[in-house]
Amino acid sequence: MAATPTPDQLRDAAQALTPWMIDTLSAFVAAPSPSGAEQPAADFLEGLMQDMGLDCERIVLDSRQIEGLALFSCPCDPDGGRHNLLARHLPPAGTKGRSVLFNGHLDVVPTGPESLWTAGPYVPRVEDGWLYGRGAGDMKGGIVCALAALQLLRTLGFAPAGTVGFNAVLDEENTGNGTLATLHALQTARAKAKLTDFDAVIIPEPFGETLMSAQVGVSWLFVTLTGRPAHVAYMGQGLNPIEAAMAIMADLKELEAEWNLPENRHPAFSDVAHPVNFNLGRIEGGEWNSSVPCTCTLGLRIGYYPGMDPADVEAQVGARIRAKARALNPALVVEIDARGHRSPGCVYDLEAPAMRTLATAHAKITGQPPARLACTATTDGRHFRLATDLPVTNYGPTARNIHGIDEAVSLESMQRVTAAMAQFIVDWCGVVAA
Ligand SMILES: [Zn+2]
């Protein structure tokens, strides 16, 4: 056997492994894992990682241990004893290569009405080279790619010469506290593994085989407006908080437009069409068609640039909301609750040796250097970038309709990403005959 597998061998092996990837991802998707209730998916993955012979541990999410940390976000769900997973391939005795940690989130976003899905959201199916289901793209497919990369090397008779870690986390979609808890445990001897076990981090979020060069910051705000209820026959005596909410949202969209002006952009986002998005994702309010309503609550997601402090952004947006409410009617009562993401943006160092090795691995497999993406969403990469010295980026398969209906991941892209991850392990960690 050759000392290391060739890119051709890795590509062929990834193709041969596709049935394993489909079976594994299908079972993973069929284990529902909305944020706050990820247990079925955690159990499935823990079983798989144990079957693969990995050294597996649970890292409990305990907000009390991490609430003092700068990157903590106010939780949306009770901890409830939920746990992250950390599994490691340990290098064979006598070998000591460099190491990598793959990090991915278990949680998925709400499905929307099941009737809109071709099959149910948790009914995985394969059609025309795509595997469908909530979480197939974001991001169970990427987690399966990382595990498949190790599996693939084993089928070729190799073992990584360094530690290869697999970290599956909770609450990425609403706070990022799962990864924060993992990092804290790795840094404070609360876990068997240590942060110093790892030399590089790859997060296989589904951004089309790109390397992430930067990501925006994201804050969530819940804004409750209280007006004055009345019978609509005497509408003038009432104060309608739902109508006020519409005006406040229109005003926030003007602020969003300002932040997107070329002269106001962070340089990492100069070529992105519309980097900053303010999203009204939820609205709740009113009681009766014929009553001026009492209250209205808006669930907002505010995007912003790297370098902007989340607390400052929240204060600025909050002041804008209060000013608009006052202008509409001084009697409107405004309450703002910053629950969920308080996630600063960051710029990744793609010139770090590990990240260059990843780019080269992708090029060896695909014949093309990877494109770079300045991302208009947040990812857990910020925790590693802002709170550790570890080189990190996002690199994962192509998906479509993530957070939408009929979410799917491309199986061909999963093959390429799996082979490229295996190539990265070969080039960065080294391999030995198993
Ligand atoms: Zn994701």
UniProtKB/TrEMBL annotation:
Residue stretches making up the Peptidase M20 dimerisation domain: 215-326
EC number: 3.5.1.18
Biological process annotations from GO: lysine biosynthetic process via diaminopimelate
GO molecular function annotations of the record: metal ion binding; succinyl-diaminopimelate desuccinylase activity
This protein's pathway: Amino-acid biosynthesis; L-lysine biosynthesis via DAP pathway; LL-2,6-diaminopimelate from (S)-tetrahydrodipicolinate (succinylase route): step 3/3
Reported cofactor(s): Zn(2+); Co(2+)
Enzyme class name: hydrolase
Organism domain of life: Bacteria
Similarity remark: Belongs to the peptidase M20A family.
NCBIfam families: DapE-ArgE (TIGR01910), PRK06837.1 (NF005306)
Protein name stated in the entry: Probable succinyl-diaminopimelate desuccinylase
Source organism (scientific name): Pseudacidovorax intermedius
Lineage: Bacteria, Pseudomonadati, Pseudomonadota, Betaproteobacteria, Burkholderiales
